[in-house]
Known about the structure:
Chain A is built from ten helices and ten strands. By secondary structure, chain A is α/β, with parallel strands linked by helices.
Amino acid sequence: MAAKEPEIIRDKDQMRRWSRAMRSQGKTVGLVPTMGYLHDGHVSLIREAHNHTDLIVVSIYVNPGQFSPSEDLSTYPSDFHGDIQKLMAVPGDVDVVFNPHNLYDYGTSKNANANEAARASDDARVGNGGNGAVSCVEENGLGHETWVRVERLEKGMCGQSRPVFFRGVATIVSKLFNIVEPDVAVFGKKDYQQWRIIQRMVRDLDFGIRVIGSEIVREKDGLAMSSRNVRLSPEEREKALSISKSLSRARLAAAEGQTNCKELRDLVTQAIHESGGRLDYAEIVDQESLEQAKEIRSPVVFCVAAWFGKVRLIDNMEINI
Amino acid sequence: MAAKEPEIIRDKDQMRRWSRAMRSQGKTVGLVPTMGYLHDGHVSLIREAHNHTDLIVVSIYVNPGQFSPSEDLSTYPSDFHGDIQKLMAVPGDVDVVFNPHNLYDYGTSKNANANEAARASDDARVGNGGNGAVSCVEENGLGHETWVRVERLEKGMCGQSRPVFFRGVATIVSKLFNIVEPDVAVFGKKDYQQWRIIQRMVRDLDFGIRVIGSEIVREKDGLAMSSRNVRLSPEEREKALSISKSLSRARLAAAEGQTNCKELRDLVTQAIHESGGRLDYAEIVDQESLEQAKEIRSPVVFCVAAWFGKVRLIDNMEINI
């Protein structure tokens, strides 16, 4: 067990200087981007990163750019002190925790005054990609106006119900990549669509960074680990098991020859409905293009999002037949 | 006069390796992105870059991502051999010419087959930012789908008449930044809106790169240098002088106290019209926000785009009063 306390860096220039200094010594740097409230799923990402690089940076930053004002930014759980304790217990050490204050605040600018801010917000409502959505960043009106979009992969599944989400994710990950300048970045496959979007973005924008997808970590009873799980009541948590249980049954059914996606989807939607969950989507899609499949003829992934009480959970299972 | 022939690199991984090797030796790298057919305006960008870095990379790449299918990609002038000769005459040397073949070809991919390509193109028509526009990259259907947009600054002026232009520029510059990984990049202020968009993008996405704007270089008679000038007939070239001449008159008028932007714009639009040019726009805008001014009360820039025959020219003058 490690006991080294990671260096905590809050300034982006200092972060970049650290990374460049390490690289100039021939060291490789791995980045594990997180929003904090760390659990064993995050720890598994860090273990995975250790397989690829000499040094590990864990970023802890709840990104307002991927939340719409109606979403749960304000209630997103956080426990920085607990996170550091957790990281000190990770075998092999975490070298740096990058914990910036606000990555969308660029200091005084002509564009940060009230009029401009109001106008930016208006523009965003009517003009950002034609979907009329706006994130907490535009609400704050600090003048940020550059967004990275992976235009096809961002459309379906979570993109349907969270219109600013993947725009915000791709943008903050670009920012973190440019600040930390890592050799390798590790993302969890629990956020499957996010992982594929980042992979595609890295390819399309020629980032000199290798993206690794790390397997889902589950509680003993099968619930996929998530920082949001803590917000479930004991009853909701029990009901939420319907997701992983029905996904497992669907995967087994597929392995036994059921390749009709509607049948498999019905199995999952019915189980979640019966448990009292409110389904957002249950889709069986190609693992790379994320296009919906009707029959399983190549590797697919079964992705689910559902609400239990006020908590929206996602989960998925790859089906490789 | 230099006579050293620059190293020509066509492969992006080789380009990044060169840059990282130089950086590991403590050298700084400057990037001058061009589309080739180099003229003295480009040479001035290289001279400017020499003021800031040890080594200079000039990229020569006509970017299909910033042309719509109806624009002049196919007739854009090129002369690679002549460009190399020109670069060999630059005082202080150019170290590398980065001349990739196709920066949107990512090798064999499931997404590069015909069905996907057609669908990508359809998606782009209906979905890319809500403007229904599509670039030559989407026409080719190689599966690129990540775009960087500077959502407010890209809207006006050239963005009005060239709907995919700035999306394509911001995206290709991001790609070049990630491939070349320069310390400094130099852009010409002739493309004023482009320069401000790149500056904003670098700030918003936290690129570790300093962006320098370099002054417009003009022919003796005042015509702003452009690779497109070669496509003007002698008569059109003569008529095109109406742009720089009327801009100069407007700037003089402003210096003499005329701060009403409508009056100043009328002066320019009338001159271009009388010469037989077809105006695209003539706007007096804030130098940073690019928002239209009614009265000149702070530093502005007078930007013009106009057609002479089949050639679209742009020019601008800063008015600092």
